[in-house]
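Posting for a labmate who doesn't have an account.
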Amino acid sequence: EDAALDLIPPALVNDRGSGMRCEGDRCAALIGKIGEATSCSIHAVRPEVCRTCMPGDAECTMARRKFGLPVLA
């Protein structure tokens, strides 16, 4: 919903206003070092697509493989 998206800081929204801005191949809201410790800087207002991604699911597995991390059991 537009109202929910309005809660996301504009600097983190892509130029089309249709989703999150990415820096390279990671979301601009992701902070920390991949493989060590990361977190979402806007966790409370993150988009629905982020809310549905769960540890160990297909999207998580794909991302972990992309970064050379072991798949969660």
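Reply:
Got it, the structure tokens are right above this. The longest helix spans residues 58-66.
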